[in-house]
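so my prof wants the structure for this chain in the tokens format not the other one, which i didnt know existed until like an hour ago. anyway here's the sequence
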Amino acid sequence: MRRRAALLLCLGLAACGATQVNLAYAPPSPLTAQPDARPVVAITQVTDRREDGHTDPRWIGAVRDGSGTSVKDLMTPVPVTEEVLQAFASALRARGLLAPDAAAARYGLEVDILALETRQTTRRAATAEFRVTLRPVNGGAPVLVDQEEAAYIGGDLIMPRTGVFSSSRALREITQTAMSAAIDRLLDKPGFTALLQ
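here's what i got, hopefully its the right format
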């Protein structure tokens, strides 16, 4: 009986704490740059404006038990702003829009992270919301301000007691899907691409 209690205690402690996950841009299908794409955009600023009450800039979500208590936090290895900057850069590069250096850029892209969170209780879910501002690098008023959100819910039911021991991979994947979808919705709008012709 003592061995069983000790084993359960060890498993419980292993489930608690924080798990590091990387996020990367992952479009639903391979992208190819359009023939008339011009690499004229540089990412000038990414700002974390999330209002979830967490002060750690690496926090992206949590696994919660049946009472809603966080039992495992998910963190990025670097601040979320750096992960999002790399994701937008990858998305722009895949479309042939990322300037090779600051001197070649005609437009600066500012990104505000309004939401980027994953959660697991009885289901896995993730939300990503970004606001982008595109302005000439030589100054002046923005030529575009836009905002998009993407949210996903996993279909599998998870038992709260066993869910705390589940792999973080599925949570990372659903968060990555939401982040990538929100980025795609912003960069693939005709209004955005038309400005760069």
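also thought this was worth mentioning. The helical segments are 2-15, 80-94, 160-163, 169-187, 190-195.
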